[in-house]
Amino acid sequence: MKTQLVAALLFGGMVMMMSNRSNAQQAEKVSSEFLMQTSTSWDGVSYNSYPQGVPELSILKITVPAHTTFGWHTHPIPNAAYVLSGHLTVEKQSDGSKKKIYAGETLAETVGTIHRGFTENEPVTLIVFYAGAKNLPLSNPVK
User: Fold this and answer.
1) Angle formed at CA 73 by CA 70 and CA 76, multiple of 5 degrees
2) How many CB atoms lie under 10 A from the CB of residue 46?
3) What average pLDDT does range 105-120 have in this prediction?
4) Are 42 and 79 in contact (CB under 8 A)?
Protein backbone atom coordinates (compact mmCIF):
# COMPACT_ATOMS: atom_id res chain seq x y z
CA MET A 1 0.00 0.00 0.00
CA LYS A 2 2.83 2.41 0.90
CA THR A 3 4.62 1.51 -2.32
CA GLN A 4 1.50 2.27 -4.36
CA LEU A 5 1.04 5.60 -2.53
CA VAL A 6 4.69 6.60 -3.12
CA ALA A 7 4.41 5.57 -6.78
CA ALA A 8 1.20 7.60 -7.17
CA LEU A 9 2.81 10.65 -5.56
CA LEU A 10 5.91 10.33 -7.75
CA PHE A 11 3.79 9.90 -10.87
CA GLY A 12 1.62 12.90 -9.90
CA GLY A 13 4.74 15.00 -9.32
CA MET A 14 6.14 14.04 -12.72
CA VAL A 15 2.84 14.94 -14.41
CA MET A 16 2.84 18.30 -12.61
CA MET A 17 6.44 19.01 -13.67
CA MET A 18 5.67 18.09 -17.26
CA SER A 19 2.51 20.19 -17.20
CA ASN A 20 4.41 23.18 -15.75
CA ARG A 21 7.14 22.78 -18.38
CA SER A 22 4.49 22.63 -21.12
CA ASN A 23 2.77 25.75 -19.76
CA ALA A 24 6.10 27.55 -19.52
CA GLN A 25 6.94 26.61 -23.10
CA GLN A 26 3.55 27.83 -24.26
CA ALA A 27 3.95 31.08 -22.30
CA GLU A 28 7.25 31.71 -24.07
CA LYS A 29 5.40 31.58 -27.40
CA VAL A 30 2.72 34.09 -26.36
CA SER A 31 3.25 37.58 -27.73
CA SER A 32 1.20 40.74 -27.87
CA GLU A 33 1.45 44.04 -29.66
CA PHE A 34 -0.58 47.21 -29.52
CA LEU A 35 -2.58 47.53 -32.71
CA MET A 36 -3.85 50.91 -31.55
CA GLN A 37 -3.57 53.12 -28.51
CA THR A 38 -4.97 56.59 -28.96
CA SER A 39 -7.04 59.31 -27.36
CA THR A 40 -7.99 60.90 -30.71
CA SER A 41 -10.03 59.80 -33.71
CA TRP A 42 -8.51 59.44 -37.20
CA ASP A 43 -9.15 63.13 -37.92
CA GLY A 44 -7.16 64.25 -34.85
CA VAL A 45 -10.14 65.19 -32.65
CA SER A 46 -9.71 64.22 -28.98
CA TYR A 47 -12.16 61.89 -27.31
CA ASN A 48 -13.80 63.76 -24.43
CA SER A 49 -15.34 61.00 -22.32
CA TYR A 50 -17.09 57.68 -22.33
CA PRO A 51 -20.88 57.66 -22.26
CA GLN A 52 -22.73 57.71 -18.96
CA GLY A 53 -24.58 54.62 -17.79
CA VAL A 54 -23.88 50.93 -17.45
CA PRO A 55 -20.89 50.10 -19.70
CA GLU A 56 -21.57 47.84 -22.63
CA LEU A 57 -18.86 46.61 -24.98
CA SER A 58 -19.79 45.41 -28.45
CA ILE A 59 -17.58 43.72 -31.03
CA LEU A 60 -18.93 43.30 -34.55
CA LYS A 61 -17.51 41.49 -37.54
CA ILE A 62 -18.73 43.45 -40.54
CA THR A 63 -18.37 42.29 -44.14
CA VAL A 64 -19.09 44.89 -46.81
CA PRO A 65 -19.39 44.01 -50.52
CA ALA A 66 -17.37 45.84 -53.17
CA HIS A 67 -18.85 49.11 -54.49
CA THR A 68 -20.86 49.76 -51.32
CA THR A 69 -21.36 53.19 -49.74
CA PHE A 70 -22.72 53.53 -46.20
CA GLY A 71 -25.17 56.33 -45.49
CA TRP A 72 -23.98 59.41 -43.63
CA HIS A 73 -24.02 58.72 -39.89
CA THR A 74 -22.49 59.61 -36.52
CA HIS A 75 -21.34 57.57 -33.54
CA PRO A 76 -22.31 58.64 -30.01
CA ILE A 77 -19.53 56.47 -28.52
CA PRO A 78 -15.83 55.76 -29.09
CA ASN A 79 -15.13 52.84 -31.39
CA ALA A 80 -12.26 51.42 -33.38
CA ALA A 81 -11.98 49.15 -36.40
CA TYR A 82 -9.43 46.53 -37.43
CA VAL A 83 -9.40 45.58 -41.10
CA LEU A 84 -9.15 41.82 -41.65
CA SER A 85 -9.25 41.94 -45.45
CA GLY A 86 -9.72 44.45 -48.25
CA HIS A 87 -9.75 48.18 -47.66
CA LEU A 88 -12.24 50.85 -46.69
CA THR A 89 -12.30 54.60 -47.23
CA VAL A 90 -13.87 56.84 -44.58
CA GLU A 91 -14.99 60.36 -45.44
CA LYS A 92 -16.10 63.34 -43.34
CA GLN A 93 -19.08 65.26 -44.63
CA SER A 94 -17.95 68.65 -43.30
CA ASP A 95 -14.75 69.00 -45.33
CA GLY A 96 -14.62 65.93 -47.56
CA SER A 97 -11.41 64.68 -45.93
CA LYS A 98 -10.81 60.97 -46.48
CA LYS A 99 -8.69 58.20 -45.06
CA LYS A 100 -8.11 54.71 -46.47
CA ILE A 101 -7.46 51.76 -44.19
CA TYR A 102 -6.14 48.45 -45.44
CA ALA A 103 -5.94 44.87 -44.15
CA GLY A 104 -3.90 44.76 -40.95
CA GLU A 105 -4.55 48.44 -40.13
CA THR A 106 -6.73 50.09 -37.50
CA LEU A 107 -8.94 53.17 -37.43
CA ALA A 108 -10.09 55.19 -34.43
CA GLU A 109 -13.58 56.35 -35.45
CA THR A 110 -14.97 59.83 -34.99
CA VAL A 111 -17.57 60.59 -32.31
CA GLY A 112 -20.37 63.02 -33.12
CA THR A 113 -18.96 63.81 -36.59
CA ILE A 114 -21.00 63.11 -39.72
CA HIS A 115 -19.12 60.65 -41.90
CA ARG A 116 -19.51 57.56 -44.05
CA GLY A 117 -17.44 54.69 -45.37
CA PHE A 118 -17.25 53.11 -48.78
CA THR A 119 -15.57 50.25 -50.58
CA GLU A 120 -14.16 50.26 -54.07
CA ASN A 121 -13.33 47.21 -56.23
CA GLU A 122 -13.05 44.69 -53.40
CA PRO A 123 -15.07 43.75 -50.33
CA VAL A 124 -13.81 44.56 -46.86
CA THR A 125 -14.12 42.65 -43.60
CA LEU A 126 -13.73 44.60 -40.36
CA ILE A 127 -13.78 43.88 -36.66
CA VAL A 128 -15.25 46.92 -34.90
CA PHE A 129 -15.01 47.46 -31.13
CA TYR A 130 -17.55 49.81 -29.51
CA ALA A 131 -17.19 51.20 -25.97
CA GLY A 132 -20.79 52.12 -25.25
CA ALA A 133 -23.48 51.97 -22.62
CA LYS A 134 -26.68 49.94 -22.25
CA ASN A 135 -29.53 51.17 -24.49
CA LEU A 136 -27.23 53.51 -26.44
CA PRO A 137 -27.08 52.97 -30.22
CA LEU A 138 -23.77 52.16 -31.91
CA SER A 139 -24.50 54.69 -34.66
CA ASN A 140 -27.13 57.22 -35.68
CA PRO A 141 -28.15 57.76 -39.32
CA VAL A 142 -28.14 61.34 -40.62
CA LYS A 143 -30.91 62.39 -42.99
Assistant:
1) 135
2) 9
3) 98
4) no
